[in-house]
TrEMBL record:
<protein>
    <submittedName>
        <fullName>SIS domain-containing protein</fullName>
        <ecNumber>3.5.-.-</ecNumber>
    </submittedName>
</protein>
<keyword id="KW-0378">Hydrolase</keyword>
<dbReference type="InterPro" id="IPR046348">
    <property type="entry name" value="SIS_dom_sf"/>
</dbReference>
<dbReference type="Pfam" id="PF01380">
    <property type="entry name" value="SIS"/>
</dbReference>
<feature type="domain" description="SIS">
    <location>
        <begin position="190"/>
        <end position="328"/>
    </location>
</feature>
<dbReference type="InterPro" id="IPR001347">
    <property type="entry name" value="SIS_dom"/>
</dbReference>
<dbReference type="InterPro" id="IPR035490">
    <property type="entry name" value="GlmS/FrlB_SIS"/>
</dbReference>
<feature type="domain" description="SIS">
    <location>
        <begin position="25"/>
        <end position="167"/>
    </location>
</feature>
<dbReference type="InterPro" id="IPR035466">
    <property type="entry name" value="GlmS/AgaS_SIS"/>
</dbReference>
<keyword id="KW-0677">Repeat</keyword>
<dbReference type="GO" id="GO:0016787">
    <property type="term" value="F:hydrolase activity"/>
</dbReference>
Length: 338
């Protein structure tokens, strides 16, 4: 996991160099503009799909939704998907439910796109179009480099669909290197602070909500922490009642509308005695006990960088708590569900 986290700056830089290939997929999509978009995924890929949902709705102005695979695999639903874009996101490309959803959607008239790290997978065969994220083989069970590469690939796809030139991520490799280097001391302080924590809440608004969900998953699967992730708005609509002095709150707060909206949320949990760790390019402006800054980018790009210290936090907390982050108990690299 350590090695794969450290590979990310180079992987992201290489993926930007492949922008023209991804732009070709985008052109094929916009030749027949979809009425709306659907995204199908599981696990970390589902968090990347949520990120893409925000991209599609905000940058393209298209309605977008997350697929519930069981409506197809368990209940046999066959909705009319003519003129719909279905994007299936899977690191392995081997989960039976995503294959079935993609095949069914194509038969129902959807234009299907596979986004995966495994170009030899069956998913690439059943989809109309495909995007290879090119992260290389990932050995640790916890997804790190495949997650950020998926985020970047989805951004490049959506950006190209709106006629963008990818300039917002042109320097993403260097920025990722800077983030990993400069966040190291802050992560070490956070590990010392939270190694004995029992409850963690991750929260964010907007694009960064995907990072909150990914943070919750990473801490649960590597460090066996009881974690929950919420939209900052939803957190205040009830769950905040369970926040107290025994709760660690991880707030993802990058510059932009989402980060601004998190200031009052973190203030509210801090007033309840929660120990707040703010991560992101707006962390310095947040009411928090500990802050980890991340270089500022366009808001829609921030999740690619802000998750990097989160990955390091999960890794080092696992080691500090006596765990093995490469092989969490009860988990395998590829999970096959239906």
């Amino acid at each position: 996991m350590t090695a794969e986290i450290d590979e990310q700056p180079d992987i992201l830089a290489r993926l930007v160099e492949q922008r023209a290939t991804i732009a070709g997929v985008a052109r094929a999509i916009v030749e027949k503009p979809p009425r709306f978009a659907l995204l199908a995924a599981r696990g970390s890929s589902d968090h990347a799909a949520l990120y893409a949902k925000y991209l599609i709705e905000v940058l393209l102005g298209l309605p977008a939704g997350l697929v519930s695979p069981s409506t197809t695999t368990l209940y046999g639903a066959h909705p009319d998907l003519r003129d719909v874009l279905l994007v299936s996101v899977s690191q392995s490309g081997g989960s039976p439910d995503l294959l079935e959803v993609t095949e069914a959607a194509r038969k129902a008239g959807a234009r299907t796109v596979a986004v995966s790290n495994t170009p030899s997978s069956r998913l690439f065969e059943v989809a109309d179009l495909a995007v290879d994220i090119g992260a290389g083989e990932e050995h640790a069970v916890a997804a790190t480099k495949t997650y950020t590469a998926t985020l970047l690939a989805l951004y490049l796809l959506v950006d190209a669909m709106r006629g963008g030139d990818g300039s917002a991520v042109g320097d993403i490799g260097r920025l990722a290197h800077t983030t990993l280097r400069d966040s190291a001391s802050g992560v070490a302080r956070a590990v010392d602070r939270y190694r004995f924590a029992d409850r963690v809440v991750a929260a964010a608004r907007g694009y960064s909500y995907a990072t909150a969900l990914e943070a919750s998953l990473k801490l649960a699967e590597t460090s066996y922490l009881h974690t929950r992730a919420y939209s900052g708005a939803d957190l205040l609509h009830g769950p905040v009642a369970a926040v107290d002095e025994e709760t660690a709150v991880l707030g993802l707060t990058s510059a932009g509308h989402g980060g601004t909206a998190m200031r009052d949320v973190l203030g509210a949990v801090a007033e309840r005695g929660a120990d707040v760790l703010a991560i992101g390019s707006a962390a310095g402006d947040m009411p928090a006990a500990l802050r980890i800054d991340v270089p500022e980018t366009a808001e829609e790009v921030a999740p690619i960088l802000e998750v990097l210290p989160v990955q390091r936090l999960a890794l080092q907390l696992s080691l500090a708590r006596g765990g093995d982050p490469d092989s969490p108990r009860g988990l395998r690299k590829v999970t096959k569900t239906r």
